[in-house]
Amino acid sequence: MLITNTDTIPGKEIVEILGLAKGNTVRAKWFGKDIMAGLRNLVGGELIEYTEMLTEAREEALSRLVKDAEALGADAVVNIRFMTSQITQGAAELLVYGTAVKIK
Predict the structure, then answer these.
(1) Closest CA to 64 of 86, 43, 80
(2) pTM for this entry
(3) What are the distances in angstroms from CA 1 to CA 55, 63, 94?
(4) Distances (CA, A) of 5 to 9, 69, 77, 90
(5) First and final CA of the chain: distance in angstroms?
(6) What is the spatial distance between Cα 93 and Cα 57, in angstroms, rounded to a whole number?
(7) The domain containing residue 91 runs over which residues?
(8) Which of 32, 48, 80, 87 is most buried as measured by Cβ atoms within 10 A of its Cβ?
(9) d(CA 11, CA 40)
């Protein structure tokens, strides 16, 4: 499955647009890690716990996007975009979406 954030794929022709493909996940860190991130926030520096959480969320959302695109019969997903939003303190949703296409 080809996934790109561009509208086209060099050397390939989009022959059919199948529709929107999407994947999302909502993630929260364990309470103990949330406390560590809070302490780190007081002294400054990277909040590693949240970086890890968003990296895991991005990977899971992409995996779900691929499954959704495959269910549509797609060969590729073009013009993908990521979006994140805070659900509660310490929990975030990560959404990835794009256009599922058939290519030649």
Answers:
(1) 80
(2) 0.83
(3) 21, 11, 21
(4) 10, 15, 8, 28
(5) 13
(6) 8
(7) 2-103
(8) 80
(9) 47
Cβ neighbour number for residue 77 with a 10 Å cutoff: 29
- What phi, psi does 18 have (nearest 5°)? -100, -15
How many residues are recorded in the chain?
Answer: 104
Phi, psi of 72 (to 5 degrees): -80, -10
The whole-angstrom separation of Cα 16 and Cα 29 is: 40
Type and span of the H or E element at 68: helix 48-72
d(CA 65, CA 77) in angstroms, rounded, equals 9
Instruction: Count the domains in the chain.
Output: 1
